[in-house]
Amino acid sequence: MKTACKRMITQQVSEILRIEIEDGDLYPGTKIPTDTELAEMFGVQKQIVRTAIEVLVKEGLLKYISDKEVYVLGHKIERNMEKLEGFTQTMVDRNMKPSFRIVSKYLRMAGNLYGNMFGIKPEEPIFYIKRMCYADGDSISLEELYIPHYLIPKMVGIDLSVFSVYEVYEMYGIHLAEAEQTLDLVRPSLNDAKLLGIDAGTPVMLFQSLTYDTDGRAIEFNRNYVRGDKCNFNVQFSDKR
């Protein structure tokens, strides 16, 4: 196949994938088909598919996770470091490698408690996500997240071991503004203590926060059990009188 012909076909494949991303057929946070599958779909060589993918990676529409796994970003992620930070960015800022393990993830009804919290009906669905958070391979905290289904309907298909929750919000145009947070000292359940790698009865710090976006919507309730032997917290106060 001549070079000019290869270049034209590569551009066509890139454009088809770009349109599928922009139209939502390939949505942010999900894995695209493999090189082999795409080559069969388009009837072209795998090298042409790889080159087309490289184009979209450079544009910030796709992201390589490994040689064989490519995920959709949708658009380039821009992070305002002066706003709320998630676990991933906090660890990166400290030159540590963050990672996650999903313990459970499913849809449930909001019920009265979370319905009132999010301003939705009790019978409306919300996502429940429970995950372990690690830094350089060490267990740091256990998170429980509650997110209204209407905000990110396709959350169930997004791999949260690849993308941080904050990245998902940004990919879907949700911009965080502020959070109400409380701190307590509690003893986790036997199962949660085992997940955290601590002895039963060992107290942990419990952070509970309700986060709002720039439109004033409550978008996430977070219950975070943090190991006190792994973290400390710095709070600054100022007298503005």
Automatic annotation (TrEMBL):
Keywords: DNA-binding, Transcription, Transcription regulation. The keyword Magnesium does not apply. Pfam families: GntR, UTRA. Residues 7-75 form the HTH gntR-type domain. One of its GO terms (molecular function) is DNA binding. SUPFAM superfamilies: Chorismate lyase-like, Winged helix' DNA-binding domain. One of its GO terms (biological process) is negative regulation of DNA-templated transcription. The keyword DNA damage does not apply. InterPro entries: Bact_HTH_transcr_reg, Chorismate_lyase_/UTRA_dom_sf, Tscrpt_reg_HTH_GntR, UTRA, WH-like_DNA-bd_sf, WH_DNA-bd_sf. Signal peptide: none annotated. This is HTH-type transcriptional repressor yvoA.
